[in-house]
Amino acid sequence: MNQEEGAYKLPPPFLSAVEGAVRSNTRGFSLIELLIVVAIILIIAAIAIPNLLKSRMAANESATVGNMKTIGTALATYTSIYGTCGYPDSLTRLGPGTPPTPAAAGLLDAVMANDNFNKQGYVYTYALTNGAGDCVGAPGADFELEAQPSVQNKTGIRGFFMDSSMVIRYDPDGDADISSPTV
After folding, report:
1. 20 belongs to a structural domain
2. What is the domain count for the chain?
3. Is residue 110 part of a domain?
4. What is the pTM of this model?
5. Residue 25's CB: how many other CB atoms inside 10 A?
6. What one-character-per-residue DSSP string does the chain give?
């Protein structure tokens, strides 16, 4: 033991022999091992991706039903506040406004306050089907709100429909109407 340094040190030739032995036993992965790992990852991805797409379509459909409920609630609120107007001739009348007026009631955000808009993989279309709805002519008596997938079987499967009955209907082919089953 070396008394000056307080610890025993291995002589240099022995130390290099140990380092050489450790380094000679370490090697990289073989090509076969890497190919097996890549194949396993690809198999897992092939199983997971379709399920991910299905869950995304289901999430888009759930969000669409929620958005239609929001628009329906805003329309019902508008007709109760501005009874002489009835349902509006355009969803833009439900958009942001300070203070709220029949032209800008502040009931919907700027994206949803449009007669045609895209949101979360669906295309929404609003139309007043009976009355003027402009607070000057005949009150708006009925409307139709449709939501169809932007890309059928990719962003969603079912289409949705709602009218003044406030019942949301769906069609598995993407084009719902008044005769479609309820959600």
Report:
1. no
2. 1
3. yes
4. 0.76
5. 7
6. --TTTSS----HHHHHHHHHHHHHH-----HHHHHHHHHHHHHHHHHHHHHHHHHHHHHHHHHHHHHHHHHHHHHHHHHHHSTTTBS-SSGGGGS--SS-BTTB-S-S-TTTSSSEEEETTEEEEEEEEES--SSSSSPB-EEEEEEEESSBTTTBS-EEEEETT---EEETTS---TTSPB-
Beta bridge partners of 144: 127, 163
118's tokens: 């895209």
**pLDDT at residue number 28:** 84
Look at residue 27 in the predicted model and tell me its pLDDT.
75
Task: Give the span between the Cα atoms of 146 and 125, in whole angstroms.
Answer: 5
Counting as low any pLDDT under 70, the low residues of the chain are 1-26
Give pLDDT tens digits for 129-181: 999 999 998 999 999 999 999 999 999 999 999 999 999 999 999 899 999 99
pLDDT at 3: 54
Range of the domain at 110: 31-171
**pLDDT at res. 11:** 59
Whether the CB-CB separation of 163 and 176 falls below 8 Å is answered with no
For residue 178, being part of any structural domain is answered with no
Angle formed at CA 71 by CA 68 and CA 75, multiple of 5 degrees: 135
Q: Which residue has the tokens 């089907």?
A: 129
